[in-house]
Amino acid sequence: MGEPQRILVVDDEVGMREGCRRILAAEGFVVETAADGRAALEHFQAAGGFDVVISDLKMPRMGGMDLIEALHAIDEDALLLVITAYATIDTAVDATKRGAYGYIPKPFTPDELLLHVRNGLEKRALRLEARQLREERERRLLEVAFERSKSTTILNCMTDGVLVINRHGQIVLRNQALSRILPDGMPLPTPVETLGIPELSDLVLEVVRSEDALIASKELAIGPCTYMVNAAPVREPVGETLGAVAVLRDITALKKLEVAKSMFVSMVAHELKSPLATIESSLGLILSGAAGNDAERDRHLMNRALLRATTLRTLVGDLLNLTAIETGNFTLKRTRTDVCRVVREVVDGLADKAAEKGVSLALACDEPLAASEILADTNAIHSVITNLIDNAIKYTPKGGHVSVRVDDAGAYARVSVQDDGIGMTAAERDRVFDEFYRVKNEQTAAIPGTGLGLTLVRRLVEMHQGRIDVDSTPGRGSTFRVRLPTTAYAQGA
Hints:
Number of domains: 4
Shape: elongated
Low-confidence stretches: none
CATH architecture of the largest domain: 2-Layer Sandwich
Distance between the termini: 85 Å
Number of strands: 18
Helix content: 40-55%
CATH topology of the largest domain: Heat Shock Protein 90
CATH superfamily of the largest domain: Histidine kinase-like ATPase, C-terminal domain
Largest sheet: 6 strands, antiparallel
């Protein structure tokens, strides 16, 4: 049981106050009294309100009409009843306008008093319950709106496109990411077919119409991009399908990487196949003895096999180094290194290759070179210079020239490798340092390579806080320039 309801009886006649108090207290109400309107108002405010106020109209200091109006302004839910010996239609209407529930004409019986009080309390309870239900409904609406706002915010923060359709195949929800993928501006709901992508429409409609909990996945090409679409049904707890949700994830970069890896595997297989075939045939010819005993010929075949084995070792080394750099496992062992000495060693090592192809190879190194000494990993710099000069020889036709120069460039030692070979277009020049990229045309078709050399060169130069750039013109050759900070600059920094 709840707390007993509280009633305030206001009348300037002691007998009336006490009579009402006894009748109401006998029914379990908590009853308090006041002798006039002013005292009743003060008591009402001090007590924090009453459930029912029964007031006479004619009282000193403050009459019943003024009291009812004042109390109604304080608590519009309080039940206000008027008792008066001068009840008329006009007074009843006036009292009602000021906030009274009703009036009880004097004299009245205990049953009449209780009937008015109970009817009024019942109506008050219904009014309070209706208000509570209305407030609860408004609170729930606010919660629903808040949850919808949160859901919308979450969906719009997703980088994947989200598409929701109802059981009738109409789009009812999409996030901002989807609006960037598919045509935007269509009103919702709208049939999924209006997207103009039959494969996507068929996929989500198949999920909606399936009797099983079908989750479908498919790769779709939409414009220049490729998306992995995963669609799943939206079901009620009883199992009825309400619609479907599809998530579109952009896998364009992954597809490009997959293609690049396939091309890389194909190129590596080709690069491995050719030198292995040469090594196998050379060694097989020597071991078979089919061509007799010719020491000079055997020596030539062995040198040929050794050269091809060196090519294989270089290829494997580039692969391992690039992998180590990508995974963060590549360690530079820096020491004071003379750039001129390293470049001269590389040029001497490639002189025979240049002569064999009929390409002149020249070196110019300023002596003494103030910027010649750098703090670097000698093997790494050796690999950088070797790649650049070897490429210049490979892409320069017979009778061409390759010039290598080492000079000062302010705080850097600069190594320039210039050739008058086939050159590159601007588009080719922009991609020449990309992984697996090779210039493809009739002139490069017969030139071996994996597209990793220049990628490795750039990574190694950047690891030394250096810079590399290239100038090139089709048919007129290319010039690669590497700048490496000198020890003097490094110490000053």
